[in-house]
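User: I'm new to structure prediction. If I give you an amino acid sequence, what do you actually give back? Let's try with this one:
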Amino acid sequence: MSTRARLTILSFMEFFIWGSWLITIGAYWFQNRQWSGAEFGAIFSTMGLSAIFMPAITGVIADRFINAERLLGICHLLGAAVLLFLPEVNDPSTFFWVILLYMLFYMPTISLANTVSYTVLVGAGKSIVTDFPPIRVWGTIGFIVAMWIVSLLRIETSALQFYVAAAASVGLGVYAFTLPACPPRAEVKKSDSFVSLFGLQAFSLFKDVKMALFFIFAMLLGAALQLTNAYGDTFLHDFDKIEMYQQSIAVQYPAIIMSISQMSETLFILAIPFFLKRFGIKRVMLISMIAWVFRFGLFAYGNPGEGLWMIVLSCIVYGMAFDFFNISGSLFVDTQVKESIRASAQGIFMMMSNGFGAWLGSTISGLVIQNYFTNPDQSMNWKEIWLSFAGYSLVVALLFAVLFRHRHEPTAKAS
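Assistant: Good question. You get back a string of structure tokens that encode the predicted 3D arrangement of the chain. For your 415 residues, that looks like this:
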């Protein structure tokens, strides 16, 4: 099997696991368990809490002690065991701790999968900017396939979604051990200082004003991503309470409608090399931020009836909003660092975007929605919720345009 095919399978499975439950856990929480919105915000914050330190820690381990592909496999096998136990939990407090444990195993695998792909591609003499996006696009396809399976099987509100994810996690955990070896690149010496021994050199990137600002805005955009992940599917499910929308396709199969977002990703992922080379990271990320404004604004005025086109357009815009930030950002970081801290740097990017960003976005949004946008009968004022998110994204975009300085040089490696 070719290198590209092997990495394609890796990407597909990595995001199939996430797609099996990420978008539909809100429906499981509110429709099946009927626990509170504030508690759900805490549940979703586990992604952020785990990503604050685990990707950075595993990045250091992969850079200095253990093959990245082996560490990837171990994390997925341990995560599968936790997923199998999750449906047995019957109270929100315990659910929080169990899913936090799972996220401690899963979140590092995203950056580890990137590290494995980058290492294998570079070793094969390929360009990560041009050769990685066509491979990564299959991760999005995996996410879509998982969402469709969960939706068509009508298990969006069922614990069965976690069993689907567990089975896939076992498969990828075993498969990871068959991937090309990605040994540690940094040599460990007895004379190494504490900083050197534990691979903390990557944190020196924060001394560079440009990189520090890049990571801060990655955190702010990471918050926006968690808002749409946490509440998108729940938003569509809530229209089931309105008789005129109950038989609409958006209410009957919300996960399928939401999967349009991932379908859009497949197109924008392939466009990343062109946009990065032509416009540079600043403009690409600014486009992403503006896309988030439209993503939330269209949701605010959309509905499953005559406003369905706005929901669909919002999902299409999501592809640009997500890819131009998450994937382009990862590629940009890789071009800015030495090979010896590649995994650590990717871990820091994950820490800021899917760690601090996800935690802040999930925690604060849960509290704000519960206190300001939830009615006495526990129904939610979705229009106001989405407009507030759109306003937040607009402020971030304006600040980024003014503060982040990066000169684009089309022929330079770091562009």
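You can read the tokens as a compact description of the fold. Here is one thing that stands out. The CA atoms of residues 28 and 336 lie 41 Å apart.
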